[in-house]
Write a structure and sequence with these properties.
The protein is mostly helical. The chain has eight helices and four strands, in the order H-E-H-H-E-H-H-E-H-H-E-H. The N and C termini lie far apart (56 Å).
């Protein structure tokens, strides 16, 4: 093969060039997810999903719940948050489908449906409480989720669980509440939202 002057250098330059970033990068003063942390987690998720691997205790090495709860530090020139979050949603869906298939093989459809109904009933029992009293409230000196906004969203989720009122997983994932002094305790509200997502993915 003949080459023109500079071809070999150009080839070497291309070979040495870094691979393009898998996500857009945050610009200016806006921070994004720290790139190494995201890359490491995605590599771990890919390996666990493809190998169907288990941890030392015999459980899955990574679950849909792990993907949903992962958090990354923020950094300048990090990955754009919205782009990573969208990818994590797709990964969570894939793990949830894999877990559903495995559970159906091991336990059968009846037990899987029974577990899902139990989870849904626990959530409904919580949401059946009076407005303003569905979750613990933080002290008057601290900030929690705004009570009227949480009650409005959980009313809709209760209707979904009871009657199949139209709600999507993406809508639940995208829920965000403003803060108020003496508001609902965040960890309790977030746990219920996570449980609703689990139910939705279980019956998808």
């Amino acid at each position: 093969m003949t080459t023109t002057p500079g071809t070999e250098a150009s080839t070497a330059t291309r070979a040495a060039a870094p691979a393009p970033a898998p996500f857009p990068l945050a610009t200016g003063r806006t921070k994004g997810y720290e790139r190494r942390a995201v890359d490491d987690f995605l590599a771990r998720a890919r390996s666990a999903f493809e190998a169907d691997s288990f941890d030392a205790g015999g459980g899955p090495a990574l679950t849909a719940a792990d993907v949903r709860s992962v958090a990354f530090p923020l950094a300048r020139r990090g990955y754009l948050i919205a782009a990573v979050d969208a990818a994590l949603s797709r990964i969570e869906d894939a793990f949830a489908a894999q877990e559903r298939e495995q559970a159906l093989e091991v336990a059968g459809a009846r037990e899987w449906v029974g577990r899902t109904r139990e989870t849904a009933q626990v959530v409904l029992d919580r949401l059946a409480r009076r407005r303003g009293r569905r979750f613990q409230r933080v002290s008057a000196l601290r900030y929690g989720y705004r009570i009227d906004e949480v009650d409005l969203v959980t009313d809709k989720l209760a209707r979904y669980l009871e009657t199949g009122d139209s709600v999507t997983v993406e809508q639940v994932r995208a829920v965000a509440f403003r803060m108020q002094r003496g508001g609902y305790r965040e960890v309790q509200v977030d746990a219920v939202l996570d449980a609703v997502v689990e139910v939705m993915l279980a019956v998808a």
